[in-house]
Amino acid sequence: MDLKAYLKTHQERVDGALSRYLPGEETLPAQLHKAMRYSVFAGGKRVRPILMIAACEAVGGVIETVLPAACAMEMIHTYSLIHDDLPAMDDDDFRRGRPTNHKVFGEATAILAGDALLTEAFNLLSASESAENISAETRLQVLNIMARCAGSMGMVGGQVVDMEAEGHDIDLPTLQYIHTHKTGALILACLQCGALLGGGNKDQFDALSRYGETAGLAFQVADDILDVIGDQEVLGKDVGSDQARGKATYPALMGLEEAQRRAQELKDLAIEALGSFDHRAEPLRAIARYIVDRSS
Amino acid sequence: MDLKAYLKTHQERVDGALSRYLPGEETLPAQLHKAMRYSVFAGGKRVRPILMIAACEAVGGVIETVLPAACAMEMIHTYSLIHDDLPAMDDDDFRRGRPTNHKVFGEATAILAGDALLTEAFNLLSASESAENISAETRLQVLNIMARCAGSMGMVGGQVVDMEAEGHDIDLPTLQYIHTHKTGALILACLQCGALLGGGNKDQFDALSRYGETAGLAFQVADDILDVIGDQEVLGKDVGSDQARGKATYPALMGLEEAQRRAQELKDLAIEALGSFDHRAEPLRAIARYIVDRSS
Fold first, then answer.
1. What is the pLDDT of residues B50-60, one digit of tens each?
2. What chain B residue is nearest to A107 in terms of C-alpha separation?
3. Which of B123, B130, B132, B144 to mutate to probe the A interface, most A CBs <10 Å?
4. Which site from A31, A102, A159, B139 is most exposed, i.e. has the minimal number of CB atoms within 10 Å?
5. pTM of the model
6. Is-contact B274 B207, C-beta < 8 A?
7. Which residues in chain B are closer than 8 Å to A161, comparing Cβ atoms?
8. Main-chain dihedrals φ then ψ at residue B242, nearest 5 degrees
């Protein structure tokens, strides 16, 4: 399959939906909505929404059913980036080559734009207009998965442990904790929400969860490898920036070759998890290959 | 009725429920959960949860049904206080006589504790264990009301306009916008969610909405008056602090006497809105009187 074309088509669908769902730049307070849209439309590749859509399609669902939840997930991801970049956190001036939210709108508005995006995600998920053909029970279940993956025992928890670890020597279990929480939780939730909204059964839900866990970790290991062997274009950030910051990485903890072997293994496990799926899971298989092979 | 006893009993119920719903201090990451609990248990009077419970009871509902949503609302309120106090925002070192969250846990953890509390509110609202006897449709509706009142066109929007207004001369409509959004939206939502969860009909929902709008505004006008005529104990912050900060207030814009007249009028309107309710709305009537009469 042509993964590049698939990603492009779906990015455009997601971008269009996000633009419809978010309040316009002229909606009052205008400065707040400008700040929210600035970061949502800052060149994100829409990895998470596309994974949710692909999971939904893998179990035979259609994209329309999953678009609101996919966009809600992108809003949650974007809010986390805005807050991560703040002076009190990572203090980053640039992201994907553009000034970060607080550099453009000031710190106070950036904090509030993040808060508002997180809130808007739950507004979108619970709005009566979204996902009309989905039962209220399923929508609550999806909402709950998202709230848990983003919360104190998910993404925010991972961020806290990551912060605490900076400048300290950490072991592999701690690094694993950080990744399964800080980035892995949202990716896993994407697969699970896609499965639920697409009408998948329990076995499919479990298989897609296994795919999400392994592909999510593969993504992180590959990212760490790219930070060492370098490909700024693929990575979207400076090569060596994790090292410079004293962040623990897989290559640093287990050596580059072992990290690359581990990434391949995780890719195989992800594809294996899709064993009982037909051709409709082909995009997920291609994504797993792409994630890892760019770093080998 | 004995309002003081009513408030005390309900505060204790809310405090107990909040403690059960929030992850314990030893739950990992411990520092994050400590920070969340620090601000939730910082002496809040639980005005919003109690209003939701009182609305639920006014339409014949029971407290158990409404406790999860009432606690979720208090988490949202608490997150907003933590973020409001940040150096980039109001830069407050103390709240209710205790050091603010970022003074104790640092700015990064305070930002994340706020994020996590907001997320936890939606986790609680969507969790399958909460409000079992309530239909999924109603729970989604309640969730949507909360997300809207807290978002960019509700509380966060009001906070942005408040920030923009600081140090500038503003007119009464702008002041009204700030209050109906920054504080009024959450209070209105409490009444509406209480009505829905208690099983109230459309007329009762509308009446309680009118009560919420007028009592919410009365609360704000009374707060502004207290900032001038002073009663630090009632107010929980320094007398004259709004003035010192150059914040617009009702007494500043319309004069003290006119503000007091307006507060009385709003109180009357709030009580009038409850005209068709029986004795079960007595707590709401007493609350409206209490809000205003402490400032007259």
1. 999 999 999 99
2. B88
3. B123
4. A31
5. 0.95
6. yes
7. 28-29
8. -65, -45
Residues in CB range of B53: below 8 A, 6 or more apart: B10, B13, B14, B63, B66, B67, B70, B194
CATH fold of B3-293:
Farnesyl Diphosphate Synthase (1.10.600)
Structure tokens at B57: 């009871």
- Count of residues in chain A: 296
Angle between helices B202-229 and B172-179 (to 10 degrees): 120
Angle of the A63-85 helix axis to the B107-126 helix axis, nearest 10: 160
Residues of chain A with C-beta less than 8 angstroms from the C-beta of B88: 106-108, 111
Q: Quick: pLDDT tens for A45-87.
A: 999 999 999 999 999 999 999 999 999 999 999 999 999 999 9
Beta-carbon separation of A163 and B89 below 8 A: no
A113's tokens? 């734009």
Longest dimension (CA), chain B: 53
Q: Which residues contact A258 (CB under 8 A, 6 or more apart)?
A: none
Block residue for tokens 């072997």: A261
Q: Which residue has tokens 């553009």?
A: A98
Structure tokens at A169: 């020597």
